[in-house]
Amino acid sequence: MIKAGIIGATGYAGGELVRLLMGHKDVEIKWYGSRSYIGQEYASVYQNFFERIEDKCLDDNIEELADAVDVIFTATPQGFLASHIKEEMLEKAKVIDLSADFRIKDVKVYEEWYQIQHKAPELIGEAVYGLPEINREAIRKARLIANPGCYPTCSTLSIYPLLKEGMIDPSTIIIDAKSGTSGAGRGAKVDNLYCEVNENIKAYGVATHRHTPEIEEQLALAAGEKVMLNFTPHLVPMNRGILITAYASLKKQVSDEEVRAAYDNYYGKETFVRVLKPDVCPQTKWVEGSNFVDVNFKIDRRTNRIIMMGAMDNLVKGAAGQAIQNMNLLFGLPETEGLLLMPMFP
Amino acid sequence: MIKAGIIGATGYAGGELVRLLMGHKDVEIKWYGSRSYIGQEYASVYQNFFERIEDKCLDDNIEELADAVDVIFTATPQGFLASHIKEEMLEKAKVIDLSADFRIKDVKVYEEWYQIQHKAPELIGEAVYGLPEINREAIRKARLIANPGCYPTCSTLSIYPLLKEGMIDPSTIIIDAKSGTSGAGRGAKVDNLYCEVNENIKAYGVATHRHTPEIEEQLALAAGEKVMLNFTPHLVPMNRGILITAYASLKKQVSDEEVRAAYDNYYGKETFVRVLKPDVCPQTKWVEGSNFVDVNFKIDRRTNRIIMMGAMDNLVKGAAGQAIQNMNLLFGLPETEGLLLMPMFP
Amino acid sequence: MIKAGIIGATGYAGGELVRLLMGHKDVEIKWYGSRSYIGQEYASVYQNFFERIEDKCLDDNIEELADAVDVIFTATPQGFLASHIKEEMLEKAKVIDLSADFRIKDVKVYEEWYQIQHKAPELIGEAVYGLPEINREAIRKARLIANPGCYPTCSTLSIYPLLKEGMIDPSTIIIDAKSGTSGAGRGAKVDNLYCEVNENIKAYGVATHRHTPEIEEQLALAAGEKVMLNFTPHLVPMNRGILITAYASLKKQVSDEEVRAAYDNYYGKETFVRVLKPDVCPQTKWVEGSNFVDVNFKIDRRTNRIIMMGAMDNLVKGAAGQAIQNMNLLFGLPETEGLLLMPMFP
Amino acid sequence: MIKAGIIGATGYAGGELVRLLMGHKDVEIKWYGSRSYIGQEYASVYQNFFERIEDKCLDDNIEELADAVDVIFTATPQGFLASHIKEEMLEKAKVIDLSADFRIKDVKVYEEWYQIQHKAPELIGEAVYGLPEINREAIRKARLIANPGCYPTCSTLSIYPLLKEGMIDPSTIIIDAKSGTSGAGRGAKVDNLYCEVNENIKAYGVATHRHTPEIEEQLALAAGEKVMLNFTPHLVPMNRGILITAYASLKKQVSDEEVRAAYDNYYGKETFVRVLKPDVCPQTKWVEGSNFVDVNFKIDRRTNRIIMMGAMDNLVKGAAGQAIQNMNLLFGLPETEGLLLMPMFP
């Protein structure tokens, strides 16, 4: 059995990690870290686990944790892991970081967008960006995984094949994203109250959202050139789910079949990326609770643009599910172990 | 592997059966019956199963089906199974009926409340009411299971121990129930449109809902006397979940601890019924997607009444999950097989 | 023009007062009191009023306010008004209190249920309980109005005629209430976050909710005897609306027509209480945004109980609308002035 | 008093017309046309009007109606009005058409996108596109108003000033739109059931939505050149509201202040278009139930694009409210008469 510890276990992503790991036959959770709830029963914070989990919340002493477990998941605020990680820990336990600390290779870009000084820049080089469909082999050998952001996962997977195949012009990419409210976390803020979010939709972080440089870096790797794009997230009155609608100009004359072949080329053998049939639009509900990303596209011949769409559960493939997918790779398990839960509908 | 067939596979309960059976290691679904979608791919009706299920929908020929499978689930309108079942089928396959056809032992009561003539009254006696926490041993030996209604499951489990222990006066029971909208089915009706249900709550079927006699029959068995009660269901703007709030007068002076002991006496060893800690109210969200029923109570000394509460996912413990729990018992499998999915939160 | 001041203008009830008063032709708001937002533009807190309101938030100096306006609305936490009110103020301005401070005549009951020492018990006697359909004449002459609680308004109006006519047994009353989330206020608490409330229903304050004694006091006045009842509120995933479902045993043999006549007797001439046609259940959506209360009933001959139902917008008839209805009476205006907004559907 | 008749009074837009006209002091509704509900009380279809409207539904005989009223609102399926309108009617009554029949000047474009043969092409030239903020003077003199579509209203108003001022490149416009579910109408379809829409978001009509040519035509008038753009609508789990997020490349170097000045130039005196303060994103909730459109913008210097945002209630400014605004202009009333309802929050 793999021994796992979670720091930040009482946030929504932490709770989802617990839900999924409870169904993973090779893992046992040894450490429920939560600074705010130290000493309280974990199942009193998340009553869904009542009678299934007896443990109490522990603090976030990552050093002690590294001695106790094989893998550490950090679902913590930006800057936490970079401030606390030390090289020696990585010799004891694998670390899968759900924060942004090690996602961006250029430390200046990180510091500019996050307005935080990076405290462990020496480890950025080693960290592997944990998007298995793209970086599978590097992940297998890693010690430190930068688990991708929710928006970047869905955006990158939806656009990647067309950039890779040179079908679209990178300078024309616009990503209009919509997210359920769990992405905003469990903090008590007026903006996230039921009555403020319900029956409402708005854009936020327009032209300034921190996931922008992460998406640009990943797409630049695919394009083989620098990418600058527009990314606009919106808050949608639902608990879970991200839908991205991305636009780009076609660089050359391509048929629907050629585009489909490009997607199939990259995802034909991928369990978790499903290229939908022609004219079926991805819907977040069809992937809820699962690790799937549903993608599809539509070419508009009038404007010579292609519309790329992707739907995903932000807490699963966008956070905890992908973290476990990475863990499976790190420990040589079948990649889908514990992750074949069917989406729940309705 | 147990071979299973589903009639009514494209309703919400049918879809949930499929979701849960996909995660059951001992079952394979051989027949997706759906009169409305014959010949269409099942995964085109429920896109959550895209790439996971290749099968097409078949018709509802239950006789042919009985030859092909070990167990038949009928998630069909009232009257369907009674009209089509024949004794010989039960020699070939176990039948688990999610409709109301065989739930009520008194055929006159059934015909009066359902306004249907019962076409197979000779099988009512044999059918076993499939509430495992109460009828476990009878279920194991049955051929035909009457899978309980959603409201009756939650109501009965919440009230049963106190009636059994003679703590409450049966003539004073009032059940105020609240259900998510999936309970209304997938039929296209104006009343179930998003804009009609959303931001709205109403009672319906007041003093006339068909689950009333089913609840009364089960509680009468517990009380050892005839029970007549009020049952008022309400439609709540959410997909899943049933909450029942039941009221009764205490027959004798009892302490909180004695009441708790009564619940523990019946449910202490039950995996799927969770008696919450004092002063924790059941919430439907804490059981969503799972087979758990969370129950608790509060005594009001001022009025000498007890308030009994139960929360459950109507599609799981209230339908498909309970059906699989019954199947596990019928086939000698561990009762919780395939049913230990943790509730999804948020 | 009547000059009005609001203390607590940035809570949900305060915001609703502003919305409704903006459409009242005889009132101008001179004071937007909000301790938390002093100096900020009111329309920056409630953007719905952008370009329609220029004023900034002021503090909650009720003494100064009494000099500046004709009527003061206090939408403040329990205890605030009792701590700050002085007899002299009532000579300068009418006060309509949306808190519970002056609703309950028995100060001991207030102090016991609210766990607050009442700081102005000498004014309790003078205060008039502002339920116009019952206390209209007393309201006209009052200086201090105790604006009823949301649950008590809906509960009392739904049950009152039958108690008054001696048709139901007061000792058997059970009120099962359901409320939208705006009733919980705009405070930043985890329990009120979108992801905690959405797709969820729960009871809360079981057997201990503070509106219980208020309802009991009002119903006792109707019954002419002490009333002790069960009141159980539930939190429903919607912004607005209260539905109450009340149960009582009939004291005598009555026909549907006789019960209907009792309701019509009290509400036939009331604009804001609508007795629905037979078998039409009240729905909160049908009254949203309006000052209407829709009531109806169903007799269950099997159990000899009657089910009484009422639906209302908690922020309008349950708070701000009723306050304005009281104001109209206090100032000799037509009672419906500014309150004939049609409910918004969907 | 202006006598009004409505054809299609039982759809959502029809119901909203009734709600708003009930609060309009110069109008009385004489005809509630609804083919599906002929002879039924209107208030039994929309219970929100119980006791406020006594009338029964009449048929859709537009010829008879033209004799009876001063103004006819048609909230009917595409093709209905064009099939029934005759020149003589326009001499008797003004017609405000909420369908698309007379919105598009080029009949070929209409027939291509709507797949309907236009039955009254001779009246297209006379019809005035009823967007008062742009066509005010022409509207005043019209007999036949083509009331704009919901998406085109919000899209056009959000983008218009910048095209008019030559600030953006028309060939780069992309409109990503999000709508509440009332836009899909009150027809009983599985796709619009509560459980299908709730907790879900999806794009639909990608690159094929019929509002595309209407938007293009209006923006072409502003740009002074042909416009081809991408328009992608999404279905959001809420009753009301449209948010559009539009993208375009800047044609020249402009400051934030210059862009703001452009908006103010066109909307500074407009009551119903509110240009929000810098960095405040429009939210649909802030305009719910009202005739306001909130717009704002953000320049992304990195990509040289501008993001234009607009929020609106699809049933008010996007349908019934705008129709009344047009009616006010047609009859020489103050343009805002009956339309100054404040948005409802929450």
From TrEMBL, chains A, B, C, D:
Active site, UniProt feature: 150
Pathway(s) annotated for this protein in UniProt: Amino-acid biosynthesis; L-arginine biosynthesis; N(2)-acetyl-L-ornithine from L-glutamate: step 3/4
Membrane-spanning intervals of the chain: none
Primary location group: cytoplasm
Domain (Semialdehyde dehydrogenase NAD-binding) ranges: 3-142
Keywords recorded for this protein, A-Z: Amino-acid biosynthesis, Arginine biosynthesis, Cytoplasm, NADP, Oxidoreductase
SMART domains recorded: Semialdhyde_dh
Any one of the GO CC terms: cytoplasm
Example GO biological process: L-arginine biosynthetic process
Source species, domain of life: Bacteria
Family classification: Belongs to the NAGSA dehydrogenase family. Type 1 subfamily.
EC number annotated for this UniProt entry: 1.2.1.38
HAMAP family registered for this protein in UniProt: ArgC_type1
Organism this protein belongs to: Candidatus Limivivens merdigallinarum
Entry protein name: N-acetyl-gamma-glutamyl-phosphate reductase
Role of this protein: Catalyzes the NADPH-dependent reduction of N-acetyl-5-glutamyl phosphate to yield N-acetyl-L-glutamate 5-semialdehyde.
Keyword Oxidoreductase recorded: yes
